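Whiteboard transcription, Tuesday session. T.W. wrote the structure tokens on the left side:
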């Protein structure tokens, strides 16, 4: 209950008191019975005293947990929970009510910090963490020259850090964001706005870091307090935490393991704020990676043609030159994090698909393309919104179906968005060709531009990216931005559009951006928001939420919940092999079985948090000869000799529909039996049937080769 964000502390108190009262009533009844039996059987007073003493032991069994204070004392003594520490940031003038009215009184303001060393030591006591952590030396030994990027350990940055640190280390990814835990249009939205720092361990597999249990709270406080004392002071406190672990490490398995701040992620404003850059995105020097200006990004679309920011350039400046450099190159000051041995603002290879594309450049393009179609075809805003509302979304797309687009977003002055959340935006961008299939053609240069943009997105969202595809990606981004200016000369490329030119280099340094985007981190907000709503007590929210989160973290360690249930199935039924269309394929793959065999079957299978159901489409392989993925549709899920297999009917690919950016397929007569862990992509896809045939839009580019996800 303490770990559940839907359960308030007062309810835990109520349950503890209720259990104590129930047990005490039973004990009271047993005491009277013991007295009666003692008298009837003639037991000695000593025997009766022993029995009464035993009964006393079960009185109020939860009394030691019956209040918030008692629970905290218990967790501190046992070391099961790493409780937050109060860090005083400053003081401000306040008032205190007295008999004579109100009197001025200084009041401290603070934040809550969860000690990083103790947190890591606590986490690494879990076998789930320690057994899945992959250290840099292991990665270098297993794959000294990676030809594909699947995780941060494949990138140049972690490998170069290993050579600098000269020993194994734990890589920390830090995230910052502001969250509203109350009604965002209410009167309390400002005072209760919180600033939160989370972190994750980039040595863990990607599928673990996508789970909220592996996203940990580092510190939390009121945003207005952070602004009043200055973010540099906040970062100075965090810098001390990382500096200590850089030098001395933490105890793990009988050794000291150093900790390195690998990168900092967040939205663009948050990153600029905590990294000491100016909080503006127009004019000159707005970019974290280069010295671009609003004017130069309209004509230059290749990273090599920009003057890149570098640590070496910054370090070689004298104090006087550095002061001039800060003033002239868009920095509000040198970030205190730069004093760390292995981190520097200009080596923070951080971009974000969520904010840059799904909430930025992608929505801008969708808005412009829809406006163009409304002007040049029979499409109208009403028709578009009817299509959005009545489109037959597949199972996996339905949960993120877009909302109707307000008419004012598509009329009058051009607007940069289509009013969708990030997940809805991704769904809309992918399915827009199917939504508007009767109004589009690649003969239209604007639509051809949009389809090419979708192909670019498929590569950027890929969970594995081949090293030899990066020059192609670089050329595609250059062509895309150039075509944007040709087709929409009156439109300005925004900073979020410009960040695309840096993606190829950042992929080379950090691996696929899909695994370090903010979407994974922002899902953690739901826990804090839900508890704030349930608890309905807004006094010292940072302390309340930090304690609740740490109870949740302790429960994860004790229960071993760092990994979602590896395999979970739905209801069971029995199937006779001979009655199924895949009988012959099964007997070829498993000759030890017969046509009369009975197999357990289920309608759904969940593997590492991803659900697979009848009708879903899977990417099984990559056909190098045709340069297309091998696609299969789930027809059954059966257990064979203790292993669950997904039965997929191989789909025949007729080609790629250029107008709709989807693969045109038809059913085949071959079947394959695959396990969830062997899939090329863990994302199930939806198949859409129209008059044009059966179509499958991809979520990301299929790659010919993939390792760990």
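and on the right, the sequence the group agreed on:
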């Amino acid at each position: 209950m303490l770990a559940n964000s839907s359960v308030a502390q007062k309810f835990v108190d109520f349950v503890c008191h209720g259990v104590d009262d129930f047990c005490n009533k039973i004990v009271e009844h047993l005491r009277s019975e013991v007295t009666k039996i003692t008298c009837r059987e003639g037991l000695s007073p000593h025997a009766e005293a022993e029995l009464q003493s035993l009964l006393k032991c079960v009185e109020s069994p939860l009394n030691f947990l019956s209040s918030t204070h008692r629970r905290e004392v218990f967790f501190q003594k046992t070391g099961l929970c790493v409780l937050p520490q109060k860090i005083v940031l400053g003081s401000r003038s306040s008032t205190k009510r007295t008999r004579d009215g109100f009197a001025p009184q200084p009041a401290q303001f603070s934040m809550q910090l969860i000690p990083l060393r103790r947190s890591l030591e606590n986490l690494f006591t879990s076998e789930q963490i320690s057994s899945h952590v992959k250290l840099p030396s292991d990665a270098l030994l297993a794959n000294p020259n990676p030809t594909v990027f699947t995780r941060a350990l494949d990138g140049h940055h972690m490998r170069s850090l290993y050579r600098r640190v000269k020993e194994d280390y734990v890589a920390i990814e830090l995230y910052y964001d502001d969250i509203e835990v109350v009604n965002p249009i209410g009167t309390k939205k400002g005072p209760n706005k919180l600033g939160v720092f989370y972190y994750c361990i980039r040595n863990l597999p990607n599928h673990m870091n996508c789970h909220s249990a592996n996203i940990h709270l580092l510190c939390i406080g009121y945003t207005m307090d952070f602004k009043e004392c200055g973010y540099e002071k906040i970062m100075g406190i965090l810098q001390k935490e990382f500096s200590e672990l850089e030098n001395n490490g933490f105890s793990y398995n009988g050794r000291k393991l150093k900790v390195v701040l690998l990168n900092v992620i967040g939205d663009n404003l948050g990153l600029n704020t905590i990294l000491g850059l100016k909080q503006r995105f127009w004019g000159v020097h707005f970019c974290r990676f280069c010295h671009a200006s609003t004017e130069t990004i309209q004509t230059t679309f290749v990273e090599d043609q920009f003057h890149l920011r570098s640590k070496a350039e910054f370090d070689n400046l004298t104090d006087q030159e550095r002061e001039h450099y800060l003033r002239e190159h868009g920095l509000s000051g040198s970030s205190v994090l730069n004093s760390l041995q292995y981190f520097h603002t200009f080596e923070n290879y951080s971009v974000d698909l969520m904010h840059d594309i799904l909430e930025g450049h992608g929505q801008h393009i969708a808005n412009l393309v829809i406006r163009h179609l409304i002007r040049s075809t029979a499409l109208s805003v009403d028709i578009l919104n009817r299509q959005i509302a009545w489109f037959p979304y597949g199972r996996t797309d339905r949960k993120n179906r877009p909302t109707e687009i307000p008419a004012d977003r598509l009329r009058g002055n051009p607007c940069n968005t289509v009013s969708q959340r990030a997940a809805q935006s991704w769904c809309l961008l992918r399915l827009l060709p199917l939504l508007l299939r009767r109004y589009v053609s690649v003969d239209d240069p604007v639509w051809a531009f949009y389809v090419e943009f979708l192909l670019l997105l498929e590569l950027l969202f890929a969970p594995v990216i081949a090293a030899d595809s990066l020059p192609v990606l670089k050329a595609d981004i250059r062509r895309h931005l150039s075509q944007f200016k040709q087709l929409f000369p009156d439109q300005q490329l925004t900073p979020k559009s410009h960040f695309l030119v840096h993606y190829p280099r950042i992929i080379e340094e950090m691996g696929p951006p899909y695994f370090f985007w903010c979407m994974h981190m922002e899902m953690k907000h739901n826990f804090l928001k839900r508890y704030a709503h349930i608890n309905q007590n807004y006094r010292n929210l940072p302390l309340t939420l930090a304690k609740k989160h740490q109870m949740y973290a302790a429960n994860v360690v004790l229960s071993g919940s760092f990994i979602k249930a590896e395999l979970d199935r739905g209801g069971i039924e029995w199937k006779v092999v001979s009655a199924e269309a895949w009988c012959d394929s099964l007997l070829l793959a498993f000759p030890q079985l017969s046509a009369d065999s009975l197999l357990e079957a289920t309608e759904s299978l969940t593997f590492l948090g991803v659900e697979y159901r009848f009708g879903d489409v899977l990417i099984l392989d990559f056909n190098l000869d045709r340069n297309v993925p091998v696609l299969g549709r789930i027809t059954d899920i059966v257990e064979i000799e203790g292993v669950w297999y997904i039965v997929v009917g191989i789909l025949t690919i007729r080609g790629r529909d250029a107008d709709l950016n989807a693969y045109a397929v038809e059913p085949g007569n071959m079947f394959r039996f695959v396990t969830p862990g062997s899939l090329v992509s863990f994302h199930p896809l939806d198949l859409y049937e129209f008059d044009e045939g059966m179509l499958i839009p991809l979520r990301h580019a299929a790659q010919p080769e993939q390792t760990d996800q």
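Someone added at the bottom: DSSP finds 25 helices and 20 strands in the chain.
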